[in-house]
Specification:
It comes from Tropicimonas omnivorans. It holds the Pfam family PaaX_C. This is PaaX family transcriptional regulator C-terminal domain-containing protein. Residues 167-254 form the Transcriptional repressor PaaX-like C-terminal domain. The chain has helices spanning 7-16, 23-35, 44-52, 58-70, 89-103, 156-166, 169-192, 200-220, 235-260, 273-288, and strands at 41-43, 74-79, 82-87, 111-116, 126-129, 132-136, 147-152. The chain has two domains: 7-102 and 167-288, Winged helix-like DNA-binding domain superfamily/Winged helix DNA-binding domain (Arc Repressor Mutant, subunit A, Orthogonal Bundle); 112-151, no CATH class. It contains ten helices and seven strands. It has a four-stranded antiparallel sheet, with no helix packed on it. It has a three-stranded antiparallel sheet with strand order 1-3-2.
């Protein structure tokens, strides 16, 4: 069965016939969305087949995997005549942190943190001078070894312009806008057209494109307090489109993973405790916005 005729089919065709993602980026997405919650290991043939649906050749896949091995993100193992690649421990930790942002983001920043007497600046902090920095006050923000002051949220006119100077808000907004241009039509069609969800192979391909496109913007987003963002900030709409589309595609995509992505040595389950946790968090987020 294919996507039914109508807006959903047009939107899906536009996405899957568009420019192919970079091979390394899509492979990282495959590991993050498919492999990480299912043990973290994939057969090379699985990667080649997944990428082929997006117009990425076998040679590009093998080159990208080799580079990811060289960068310490993947490590390989040969079993019989087949090569398998799994996440390294360091990469696994990075993927876990990224998964938190994608599938279960922490509560929005409630204010600001200001560090004084800073020797080194942790990720996410913006410099205010040689030994001072500012960051959004979120539960996942790393605290530096320095004096840290908590500041309440401030009026928009007090921080909007400085925030745009301290963080790349313009670039992040462009990424979210590009994501919306690509996926908002699909989200709308899947939400409103009866019988629109695609079959398993197409659902998985669309979900991988969805995650790949959203991941770049979401991981670059400093997730500042609302007062520091412009009133037309596209990140809010992008998040809603991501959650809605992911949930609409998940059932068929996960079934496809269980049926066709594993082999006898490295079986892939349709669902695991980790994948169910992701779905539960996304459903809870979606229900809060109804």
């Amino acid at each position: 069965m294919d996507i039914s005729d109508g807006a959903a089919r047009i939107a899906a065709r536009d996405i899957l016939s568009g420019p192919a993602p970079r091979a390394a980026s899509l492979i990282v997405t495959i590991y993050g969305d498919v492999a990480a919650p299912r043990g973290g290991t994939l057969w090379m043939g699985t990667l080649i087949d997944c990428c082929a649906r997006h117009g990425i050749s076998e040679s590009l896949v093998r080159t990208a995997v080799s580079r990811l091995v060289g960068a310490g993100r993947l490590q390989g193992e040969r079993i019989g005549r087949r090569s398998y690649y799994r996440l390294t421990p360091d990469a696994g930790a990075e993927f876990s942190e990224a998964a938190g942002i994608l599938y279960a983001p922490p509560a929005a920043a409630k204010g600001w943190l200001v560090a004084l007497g800073l020797r080194s600046r942790p990720p996410g902090w913006a410099s205010l001078g040689p030994s001072a920095a500012i960051a959004p006050d979120r539960a996942d923000m790393p605290r530096p070894d320095a004096s840290v002051l908590e500041a309440p949220d401030l009026a928009p006119e007090a921080l909007a312009a400085p925030a745009a100077d301290l963080w790349p808000l313009g670039e992040v907004a462009e990424r979210f806008t590009a994501f919306l241009q690509g996926f908002a039509p699909l989200e709308d069609a899947l939400r409103t057209e009866p019988g629109a969800p695609p079959d398993g192979a197409e659902a998985l391909a669309l979900r991988l494109r969805l995650v790949d496109a959203y991941r770049g913007a979401a991981l670059a987003d400093p997730r500042l307090p609302a007062s520091a963002l412009p009133p037309d900030w596209p990140g809010h709409r992008a998040r809603a489109v991501f959650v809605s589309t992911y949930l609409a595609l998940a059932g068929a995509a996960d079934a496809e993973i269980g049926l066709n992505l594993g082999d006898d040595t490295c079986p892939m389950l349709a669902e695991t405790e980790a994948s169910r946790w992701r779905m539960e968090r996304l459903r809870a987020e979606a229900s809060q916005k109804i």
